[in-house]
Design brief:
Radius of gyration: 19 Å
Number of helices: 10
Strand content: under 5%
Oligomer: single chain
Largest sheet: none
């Protein structure tokens, strides 16, 4: 018997033309931001451009709904069972904890926790140790909520529309791979045209980021299909961004050598993301799609 979480007969069906329309609109809406976001990451204007860019898949999905006569409310907005929400939040923390302590201990990417604590004390006006603890709490709460505001823009498109549309035609493996490849391809202009990278050779950056993005896209697809909701993917995306960028990367010395191993463009984190996807499918099973049930 098909698990209740895999029954998606209430989800809108999308013709192939709708997928093409969504992808074309995503390219058209996103191209100006991908091309002109060239300022430093800490620049406030760049943050606004980046946020706008992240919302282009969501905007494309909403316009596609209008073009093809689908109700926007029919997208998978429902809040999921708590276990899927918690999985979405916890999985990035797990694969980050599997990667970074090893990188620190081996010296592949040296730790800079003392420097992080000094920066936290200067920013928060607190004592040694206490500042780092408060910083972790802020990342775990406010940081993830803030990141979710941007992640939602992507997830409305990638997992709210694209994953269900692909699930009409492909098995889970196909959905996870195609969704992940498209998601990776959407990032390529930013990697090549802006400073959205860690400084490793371009081929290394693309290879590592590509593998990790496809794996993370697979995890997001698993959560979306199991829960029939886009919110676990939003939490996954937000948790990944907040914990990686605001904590683990800032606790790590990123230089020409460690850039091969650390950050979301390096070998370490992307390897553990692949392991997380494999474990999720092994322990949680592979979701059935509409294509499987034909």
């Amino acid at each position: 018997m098909t698990p209740a979480a895999d029954r998606d007969d209430d989800m809108p069906r999308w013709p192939a033309a709708a997928i093409a329309c969504f992808l074309l609109l995503t390219i058209l809406f996103g191209a100006p931001f991908a091309i002109f976001a060239r300022a430093a990451p800490q620049d406030p204007l760049t943050a606004l451009i980046g946020a706008a860019f992240m919302w282009t898949p969501g905007l494309a999905a909403l316009v596609t709904c209008r073009v093809f006569g689908r109700r926007i409310a029919a997208l998978p907005w429902r809040w999921p069972a708590a276990r899927y929400a918690w999985l979405g939040y916890a999985i990035p923390v797990a694969y980050l904890l599997a990667a970074y302590p090893v990188l620190w201990a081996t010296g592949l990417a040296p730790a800079s926790i003392a420097a992080f604590d000094a920066g936290a004390r200067a920013a928060l006006g607190l004592g040694e140790g206490t500042a780092t603890l408060v910083a972790v709490v802020l990342v775990a709460t406010v940081g993830v909520v803030r990141a979710a505001a941007n992640a939602l823009g992507e997830e409305i498109g990638w997992r709210g529309l694209l994953v269900p549309a692909l699930a009409d035609r492909l098995s889970f493996a196909g959905v996870a791979f195609v969704n992940g490849v498209i998601w990776f391809a959407w990032h390529i202009p930013s990697i090549l045209l802006t400073d959205y990278n860690a400084g490793a050779p371009v081929a290394v950056t693309l290879a590592c980021f590509g593998v990790g993005t496809i794996a993370m896209g697979g995890i997001a697809a698993w959560l979306s299909l199991r829960s029939r909701s886009l919110w676990p993917a939003v939490l996954l995306h937000a948790s990944h961004n907040a914990w990686t960028e605001l904590l683990f990367d800032r606790m790590t010395v990123v230089n020409a050598r460690s850039a091969w191993w650390a950050t979301e463009f390096g070998i370490g984190l992307n390897a553990t993301t692949v392991v997380a996807l494999l474990l999720l499918c092994w322990l949680g099973g592979v979701p059935a799609t509409r294509a499987d049930r034909r």
